[in-house]
Write a structure and sequence with these properties.
Helix content: under 10%
Order of helices and strands: EEEEEEEHEE
Number of domains: 1
Structural class: mainly beta
CATH topology: Immunoglobulin-like
Number of helices: 1
Radius of gyration: 15 Å
CATH class: Mainly Beta
Strand content: over 45%
Largest sheet: 6 strands, mixed
Oligomer: single chain
Low-confidence stretches: none
CATH architecture: Sandwich
Length: about 120
């Protein structure tokens, strides 16, 4: 089950969110051979034109279990102020060739408006 966390993003500013992924024993999860993806949109039912894709990276070394999500100031400037929903998923291909996806984080993001542009 995914953890739940709310964030605030400033419109027009560079943003980075660092996530520390842990296993059942609360140790850093080894993210070797994993991929990460994260998106945000106005509502769960919004169409794809309303989706903002985070730049999602597994930090090196991948054994530290750290994922960084980021948006450039250009990306956040294009967002309308208000509430959004988001989630973060990690995935890997198992020995049978099946892709296993795990949602690790979800929640709401509040985008605060910018005066200076």
């Amino acid at each position: 089950m995914a953890q739940y966390e709310d964030f605030t993003i400033d419109q027009g500013a560079d943003t980075a969110i660092e996530i520390h992924v842990v296993d059942a024993q609360n140790a850093a999860k080894d993210l070797s051979n994993y991929a990460v993806a994260a998106k945000m949109k106005k509502t769960y039912n919004s169409d794809s034109s309303d989706t903002t894709v985070f730049n999602s990276v597994i930090a090196s070394p991948s054994t530290d279990g750290i994922v960084t999500l980021s948006l450039t100031n250009t990306q956040t400037d294009a967002l309308k102020a208000g509430r959004y929903v988001y989630d973060v998923e990690i995935s890997f291909v198992d020995s049978n060739g099946d892709t296993i996806i795990e949602r690790i984080l979800e929640g709401k993001i509040q985008v605060t408006p910018s005066v200076t542009k």
